[in-house]
Write a structure and sequence with these properties.
heterodimer; A: 318 residues; alpha/beta; Rossmann fold; four-stranded antiparallel beta sheet; globular; B: 261 residues; six-stranded mixed beta sheet; 10 helices; 10 strands; 25% strand
């Protein structure tokens, strides 16, 4: 049994419009799963559903989220609050908006320790310092008394990671944690997450639209399109030889190593992700697909899996 | 004799003053861009890239040095001088949502520079506006829509159409694709390349993404702490960067899967 088992997760609006359509995946201890896709494909909604932090008007409409045998989708509000932070934690893209601007960052991390462990002030502060050292915060002791605006973007993200790890969670969900950072800082934060994962045996789910990030850290990749899982497999294999045309076209759209405009234009993906209320018939990607066949409009292709690798495309249905 | 560079920046220094003290945001920068070519400018946040862009636009007055456009100094002391500069240099920003007036239709946004500069009459401005929309790959129906009704990629096309309205010689693109999905990035990058080729535009393309800069630029300048620490042909910077900071930037790029064994 995997640490986290997501089965046929459905997330949607009150009128029944689905934003996430029957997504299933497992997450093991010590593993990094990257969830990739364009904006509007349901990546963040999936993560927020696991945390039970969906925005107002959006709810889990079906499926199960089993964590260590407990179904988070049906857990009571109070029990879920204890779960959050203690066992499953999340970090977001822009740490500035997740941090309280009028409290020192040390106090904000100490608060997490107090809330979850009932620790006293001095103990909590000492734990905060330990956590700052854990996330390799430069001049950790001095930084405890800094306010968020006095830190760089990378340092703020380190604070968020420290707060998320305060109670030694088993699962860390990271939603575009490095998108707002400079590339050199991005590489540092990803390396940090990787190291911490090794030290703590974390299960890490990393949501990103950046396939470069995926290449740096992921063990396994789940590709989402228009609310559905369209491809999943071991990262190296998937990146080297993607089976779903969507994954292939996403990879081809990036300027490749050393490629110049003199080598010809980039491969565009025409059009854009359809709105959840206006999905095309059949495969949702078919209008943008370079390999589309007439039968692609007939039905949503099933997700077919064999030996740990799966894809939902009529080109690979048998 | 070599062609006069379209943009010549010589010994440029811009100091920004705040209560906390003075920052040498741009600290003695010199470079040229030949007409019809693209210079990619890379560097991390706070290295002075955007201040440099603002100085070239004439929005920041330099403390030292000079900026020549097509061989001439273009002072920006008076309003008519600023308008002449605007005819030569236009800008495309990272976040088109923040740089497009949400209460104006797309047609009006694209027409605005023509209105401000008193170009033509209503009918000729409308024709030019429709031509510009077509040029950036937007349907004529886009003219009646508002920025919030469009996707991020479409909004960036609107911003490009507006930047083209006065037929400038130089367009400064500040992180124009950083906020876009990779699929849409490709569309916008291809569009910029097409426009450059067809209109003979000169581009200053600012980005933190070295792979994107390598794709679009003829030459690359690496900026670090207010100075340009390395400048050269794009292929050369990519394959044989010398400055430690350029190498650090290159090292942060994930390995090419095809190059692995």
């Amino acid at each position: 049994m995997a640490l986290l088992e997501v089965r046929e997760l459905g997330v949607g609006l009150a009128d029944g419009t689905l934003l996430v359509r029957g997504v299933s995946f497992d997450l093991e201890r010590g593993e990094t799963l990257a969830i990739v896709g364009e904006s509007g494909c349901g990546k963040s909604m999936t993560a927020l559903a696991l945390m039970r932090l969906l925005p107002p008007g959006v709810a889990i409409l079906g499926g199960a989220v089993r964590f260590d045998g407990i179904d988070l989708a049906r857990l009571g509000q109070r029990a879920m609050e204890d779960m959050r932070g203690n066992r499953i934690a999340m970090i977001f893209q822009e740490p500035m908006t997740s941090l309280n601007p009028v409290l020192t960052v040390g106090e904000q991390v100490a608060e997490v320790v107090r809330r979850h462990e009932g620790a006293r002030n001095a103990t909590a502060r000492a734990r905060a310092l330990d956590l700052f050292r854990l996330v390799r915060m430069p001049e950790a002791a001095a930084r405890l008394d800094a306010f968020p605006h006095q830190l760089s973007g990378g340092q703020r993200q380190r604070v968020m990671i420290a707060a998320a790890l305060a109670c030694r969670p088993d699962v860390l969900l990271a939603d575009e944690p490095t998108t707002a950072l400079d590339v050199t800082i991005q590489a540092e934060i990803l390396a940090l997450l990787r190291e911490l994962q090794g030290e703590m045996g974390l299960a890490l789910a990393l949501i990103t639209h950046d396939l470069g990030v995926v290449r740096m850290v992921a063990d396994r990749v789940l590709v989402m399109y228009a609310g559905r899982k369209v491809e999943e497999g071991e990262a190296k294999a998937l990146l080297r030889q993607p089976l779903h045309p969507y994954t292939r076209q996403l990879l081809a759209a990036r300027p490749h190593h050393g490629r110049s405009r003199l080598d010809g234009p980039l491969a565009e993906i025409r059009g854009m992700v359809p709105a959840p209320r206006a999905l095309p018939p059949g495969c949702a990607f078919q209008p943008r697909c370079e390999s589309a066949l007439p039968r692609c409009t007939a039905a949503v292709p099933p997700f077919i899996q064999s030996s740990g690798y799966g894809v939902a495309c009529v080109l690979h249905d048998g | 004799m070599a062609e006069t560079p379209l943009l010549q920046v010589q010994g440029l220094a811009c100091h920004l003053t705040s209560p906390a003290g003075t920052v040498r945001a741009v600290d003695g920068v010199s470079f040229d861009i030949a007409p019809g070519t693209t210079l990619g400018l890379v560097g991390e946040s706070g290295c002075g890239k955007s201040t440099l862009a603002r100085a070239i636009l004439g929005l920041v007055r330099p403390n030292a040095g000079e900026i020549r456009l097509a061989g001439e100094l273009h002072p920006t002391r008076t309003a008519p001088q600023r308008r002449r500069r605007a005819r030569l240099v236009q800008m495309v920003f990272q976040d088109p949502f923040g740089s497009l007036n949400p209460r104006l239709t797309v047609g009006r946004i694209v027409e605005e520079p023509l209105l401000v500069h008193g170009e033509g009459d209503g009918a000729s401005r409308a024709r030019r506006m429709l031509h510009l929309l077509d040029r950036v790959g937007l349907p004529f129906t886009a003219a009646a829509r508002y920025p919030h009704e469009m996707s991020g990629g479409q909004r960036q096309r609107v911003a490009i159409a507006r930047a083209l309205a006065l037929a400038p010689k130089l367009i400064i693109c500040d992180e124009p694709v950083s906020a876009l999905d990779v699929s849409i990035q490709a569309q916008v990058l291809n569009l910029l390349c097409d426009l450059q080729r067809d209109l003979g535009l000169t581009l200053l393309f600012i980005s933190h993404d070295l792979a994107v800069v390598r794709f679009i630029a003829d030459r690359i300048a690496v900026m670090y702490q207010g100075k340009i620490v390395e400048e050269g042909p794009a292929a050369q910077i990519w394959s044989a960067a010398r400055h430690p900071y350029s190498r650090k930037l290159l090292a942060a790029i994930p390995p090419d899967p095809d190059a692995e064994n």
